[in-house]
Amino acid sequence: MENLLYYWKPIVEILILWFVIYEVMLFFEGTRALQVIRGIVVLLIAYFIFLKLGFEILDWLLGQLFTISVIAMMIIFSPEIRQGLARLGKRRFGFSLKQEELDYLLKQLSEAAQNLSRAKHGAIIAIEKNDPLTAYIESGVIIDGQVSSELIETIFDRATILHDGGLIIQRGRISAAGCIFPLTENHELSRIFGTRHRAALGLSEETDAIIVVISEERQDIALVYQGKMYKDLSTKELSEKIEQLIKVK
After folding, report:
1. What are the contacts of 109-112 at 24+ separation with CB within 8 A?
2. Alpha carbon 85 to chain centroid distance?
3. Given the DSSP bridges, would you call strands 123-127 and 166-170 parallel, antiparallel or unpaired?
């Protein structure tokens, strides 16, 4: 019995360790901190290997480096940590619209995107998926209205005070407009993209929202999802892409 426990104990420890690492990866999924977490995981694995091999100097060095890395990450990536904590314990309901409701939503969005593009009016529209956008809704003006191309076009008309902010669609309704979204810190993004595209990428890095962006200067339609941008879309391609992403769990 003792021999059995001797062999099973390290196996259980390894399984627990990998489970914790996996959960941490999910915790930071879609954020800038994920790459740093991967580096820390490598340091952690190396630390345990050196510990088992008895390399005392390397073990001590990596132990100190690991401690400093964790503290630095807590300070630098505090927004990502808050976002991850907000997800904990949250039940994921997914997109619950019926097919006919989804078809109506896509039709209104497509018409609005086409008309805004032709009128050279910029716009940024975020569709809530699983991650709640409540914090961003609170930064804007509550609308709570039915989605319609006319209402969307009115909100983003340059004569209105809400046109510079973002519009949020939640559970098939327009929840708020004039919302403030976080700007991406991706320095590799081309300078041809303005504040709306940077805000769309920033929001997509922190949530799983589906974001539609209409360029005021270039009149093109783009879609942003989890840090990836799909550019120069036709209205048909926009509808198909939104429907595809909505149905991805």
Report:
1. 109/147, 109/149, 109/152, 109/212, 109/238, 109/239, 109/242, 110/235, 110/236, 110/238, 110/239, 111/149, 111/235, 112/149, 112/152, 112/153
2. 14
3. parallel
Give the separation between CA 197 and CA 204, rounded to whole angstroms. Answer: 10
In the chain, the number of structural domains is 2
Strands, E, within the chain: which ranges? Answer: 123-127, 141-146, 166-170, 173-179, 210-214, 221-225, 228-230
Amino acid at 236: K
Q: What value, to the nearest 5°, has the Cα angle with vertex 245 and ends 249 and 21?
A: 45
| 94 falls within a domain | no
In one letter, which amino acid is 167?
L
Tokens of 193: 């993209």
Dihedral sign for Cα 230, 242, 111, 136, please: negative
In angstroms, rounded to a whole number, what is the distance separating the alpha carbons of residues 168 and 112? 14
Reported pTM = 0.64
Q: Is the pLDDT of residue 163 over 70?
A: yes
Q: What average pLDDT does the segment 199-226 reach?
A: 92
Of 31, 55, 87, the residue at which a domain comes to its end is 87
CATH of the domain at 193: 3.40.1700.10
pLDDT band, residue 27 (cuts 50/70/90): low
DSSP 8-class letter at 133? -
